[in-house]
Amino acid sequence: MIFNNLIRIAKPYCYALYSLFFVSGFATATDSEFPNHITIATQHWPPYQQEVNGIQTGFSIHALRCVMAKMKQRYKVVFVPWGRAQNGVKTGQYDAFFAASQNEWRDEFAVLSNTFIEQKWKFYLHKDSTLSTDIDSLKTSAVFGTRIHSNTDHWLQKNEFQKIRQFVSIEQLVKLQSNKRIDAIMENALLFEEEVLKAGYTMSDFKVIENMDYNLGVYFSKSLLKKYPQFLSTFNKSTSACVYAHD
């Protein structure tokens, strides 16, 4: 009798404890589908991304912010040199880097998201250049300046352009070409045009040859995606409402 009474008294508490454990376990499983916080590395690359007095702005910054808000994902963007941003993801220091276009080396240690940030690549020659504007001819005749660690540099080398000189910044490239120290540049159009205006030149100082569209996304580390296999598909679905396209 006493034992039966104890069972009747204890039963509601047992159900309550069972419910608590079930709900708690369910919440933990749901939370574990996504990281609590991720760190994304980037470079100073206006007008796509820049940080001035602690304020982060730019087309890529706003597009990323839009996606993360839709996912309700906590994240932090850190500005470092571009080579360090990429190698930092390779070594596990960072979870991702952006804004980036696809290449084979990056694919070894990271996975590119949907590309949702527009990028156009163009060739630039000095307006007084006597070189042929035929791209196959430029492969052997033109001395190209490129940004080290950039995908434009990687593309030129992959496509067997024979005379490539690497430099640190777009500022150097524009100055060198304006002074006819290099023959050609193949660059992101927005990046090049921004620097030309900043340096006090105009686009009429250059010959422009169309190359290709090669849009940008976020490269997430394979180790992050292995731990959170649902993350990338959810991120990709969220990009459709956050596309940046230059008018």
From TrEMBL:
InterPro entries: Solute-binding_3/MltF_N
Domain Solute-binding protein family 3/N-terminal: 39-190
The keyword Signal is assigned to this record: yes
Keyword Chloroplast set for record: no
Domain of life: Bacteria
Residues spanning the signal sequence: 1-29
Keywords linked to the UniProt accession: Signal
Name by which UniProt lists this protein: Solute-binding protein family 3/N-terminal domain-containing protein
